[in-house]
């Protein structure tokens, strides 16, 4: 413990936040009195620091280098500023923030440190969705962007997401920029107190024009005269509603019925265990509201509105949330139809853990299809991109406007699809059958294993490599692609892709943002009627899902 006592005192001396300073003083005092829990807590806070990578920073709020706090954010801002100054003589940056605890504080700290370092800093006028910040990077023509958000993480977390402009076109950072920025952050952290960093309060506040233009361009995605829909919308206690409300109104949709308990920003997310529309129970209030009002569709954004979830009524009146893959390939089919109708070319892209369905769409329309590593930073960088998605509810329907997933733009596109089907006397379930008839049926599932000990994940991965399965359930393994040292055009990564007979597939990898091991299961069928194809693909996924839960849990 004594090894961390001096570090804790040095941290306290430079912490500008009364709350985290007092928190650490209490932990330190208890640790020095011999309290075993406090000693372990202090070690956890100081034996490592949150790693800055391509996803920026993300972690639990609290004092110490292994938590999200004002000291760590100041170091990150100063390090990022140094990186930008090395890249260009007159860099500029726009900064956004969501409604989480300390998001606005972290954003203002960043603006002051950027401005103090000689970088033109522009702060968005209030808490706004991540897609608005990503749009602002391109719209304002700045060198970089920072979004303070932890997206759909638990309430105790916050994060720091970084974008680059210019040649990077407003995408999130990738290697080697992440390592170069991390090196600058480490230099700041080891050389000075954050209280000594130059600051300036004369940074700019972006005008309403930025949001107005985002709204205008996003609403323009919808065709004129959309058929009325009864929409239920939830913001999942996040920041999506103000922007989504304006966009949907300007696009011509009826005003949604909102889930009142979840519509305003609330950093404690009181109605959900995890503010992620994928999590069991997260949409319960929205589905109840939809049944109550006889809705046509449920639209849900996650807390920073970069993700979209959709639920639809089936023929028996029950409600069903579409998976990210189902929304993704239906939007991909729509994008392919648009390209075919205009005579234009373009590339469809998806992460490698997303359904192979989009590849089938691209093949049927003679379009280029590109698979990328997991993460929208890769999807958004695909050349000649017309549409991209990843199965974790992330969709990019308008690459000319924004180079990140955008849950509001995607909502407009999906609602336009639903409205067109309704006008034609059809429905989304019927459209799914039409997809299965044209391209084959594709089913998928995901297993997400949250661990308390991060060392458990590499142990599981090492076990799979040491004793690779030859059969999963009753299905024979054809081959395994191990990305550990790189595979094909992909760089090295901790990914195993298991190909099985019958064109089924299982992918295993650690999460990039949470303490989870993730397993992605996909199957397809092109035999029989559309309904039979869907049933067969789903049966295969169910069998593989059950077998993988035994294999990796």
UniProtKB/TrEMBL annotation:
It holds the Pfam family PGM_PMM_I. Residues 50-188, 213-317, 324-423 form the Alpha-D-phosphohexomutase alpha/beta/alpha domain. GO terms for biological process: carbohydrate metabolic process; purine ribonucleoside salvage. InterPro entries: A-D-PHexomutase_a/b/a-I, A-D-PHexomutase_a/b/a-I/II/III, A-D-PHexomutase_a/b/a-II, A-D-PHexomutase_a/b/a-III, A-D-PHexomutase_C, A-D-PHexomutase_C_sf, A-D-PHexomutase_CS, Alpha-D-phosphohexomutase_SF. Its cofactor is Mg(2+). The keyword Metal-binding applies. Residues 497-527 form the Alpha-D-phosphohexomutase C-terminal domain. Keywords: Isomerase, Magnesium, Metal-binding, Phosphoprotein. GO terms for molecular function: magnesium ion binding; phosphopentomutase activity. The keyword Thylakoid does not apply. Belongs to the phosphohexose mutase family. PANTHER family: PHOSPHOGLUCOMUTASE 2B-RELATED (PTHR45745:SF1), PHOSPHOMANNOMUTASE 45A (PTHR45745). This is Phospho-sugar mutase.
